[in-house]
Amino acid sequence: MLEKKDDAKEIITELGLNEQTPREIVEELNKHIVGQDEAKRSVSIALRNRWRSRKLAEDIRDDVIPKNILMIGSTGVGKTEIARRLAKLVKAPFIKVEATKFTEVGYVGRDVESIIRDLMQIAVRMVRRQKTEEVKEKAAENANERLLEILVPEPKQTQNPLSKLFGGVDANNEQKTETPPDTGKAGRDFIRKRLESGKLEDELIELEVADHAKPMVGMFSGSSLESMGDNLQDMIGSLIPKRMRKRKVTVAAARKILEQEEAEKLIDMEDVAEAAVELAERSGIVFFDEIDKVAVKGSSSGPDVSREGVQRDILPIVEGSTVMTKYGPVKTDHILFIAAGAFHTAKPSDLIPELQGRFPIRVELKSLQKEDFEKILTEPQNALIKQYKALLKTEGLDLEFKPEAIERIAEMAYDVNEQSEDIGARRLHTLLEKLLEEVSFDAPDMVKEGKTEILIDADYVDERLKEIAKNRDLSQFIL
């Protein structure tokens, strides 16, 4: 039992902990997100505090709980992206949920505890992937032996059927083999060498695989009976033996299937579950989006009662409770909760006081300026212009943007956001898609005609997007 606990801690060290300083975390976030320095500082400190809490003595460690964060800012300014990149950085289980999913007029929607059950599923997948990597070499060896057995089966042993009935010494003496012991050994060694050198990868073999039928209890999902559905599905799955079917596949494809099967045999799911619970409890991050949509202004009546009910349902999860999952009980005390909302019509003070108190750190994200749009287009690793260049490069077309073209797109995105709804960086998706619509459509024909370069300048931008500049109410262009 002690060994299992140590294994769980080792998994946590590898997956759920980040050794980077707050400054290094901010630098890493800067590679993907433009601006919003205040929000980046807050989340980097929250992440570093987790590292610090692990270094504390046992008697004080459990009392140090994460300081949850409330992000306030309009859509498209980077709230979700900051939380998502943070989780990726620390290799922590991360789940994004819409607060509005848990309410509808007249009744509360999904069971709020399903958030933690979903987080646990993500943690289990992460730990399982980690464990699979650890046994990868052994699984590959075992898969190779099974492939060899399929290609060159071992000689079968036969014995007198009456000996099974009567047994005794005579029965053992009567046991014979169909072929001499060394017959075929040279052939197996020859095939083994060819198999290991990769010369048989395209050969077709017949492989017996498990037939994964679709779950029969899908009727439970999406309701408050979700956990019952999971448990019933597991119970039925354990009672009914797996159906096997034969498939003709190449040796290369068979190796992948067999490696996966062998890895599953080598992994102890009890260890995985224990490590996953520890990982979710100590490193899990839950991102509540659209939290402002369940805020209640003034007296609560009609649909507002449902909204306040959602807040009261969320409260026990955020303040710390134990949720039963099929992998065991999960405590939510040390899970980091990040909530976000635009708060255009409601204010953070419209949330119930108990929930407000559970989000002590509040960060306001600023609306994006023209300079921010220019940086978003070019600087991040996944910048939009880099994406479009890579997409058209697959057709053999080189796309080049002049600096004045980028400046004009940024200026137009800022103006449209100012004049209509502010949707932040998402406005750039709309503009670029319209700008490059004709090029994307004609790219294959252009390459056939020998044209391999397209230069986008300010005049081209004005020509393609002049209608948007003139009429901001065109619904087909403005999201």
Task: Give structural notes.
With 479 residues, this protein is an alpha/beta fold. Helices cover 54% and strands 12% of the residues. The chain contains 21 helices and 13 strands. The protein has a 5-stranded parallel sheet with strand order 2-7-10-1-11, with helices on both faces. A two-stranded antiparallel sheet has the order 3-4. Helix 2 (22-30) crosses helix 3, helix 6 (114-134) packs across helix 13 (269-283) and helix 7 packs across helix 12 (251-266). The longest helix is centred in the N-terminal third of the chain and has 21 residues, at 114-134.
Radius of gyration: 30 Å
Helix-and-strand structural type: alpha/beta
| Count of strand segments | 13
Specify the biggest β-sheet.
5 strands, parallel
Tell me what portion of residues adopts beta-strand conformation: 5-15%
Provide the helix percentage: 40-55%
> If strands are numbered along the chain, what order do they take across the biggest sheet?
2-7-10-1-11
Kindly report the average pLDDT value. Answer: 78
Query: Which residues sit in consecutive blocks of at least 5 with pLDDT less than 50?
Result: 169-179, 214-224, 474-479
Gross morphology is flat
Total of DSSP H or I helical runs spanning 4+ residues: 21
Q: How far apart are the termini?
A: 56 Å
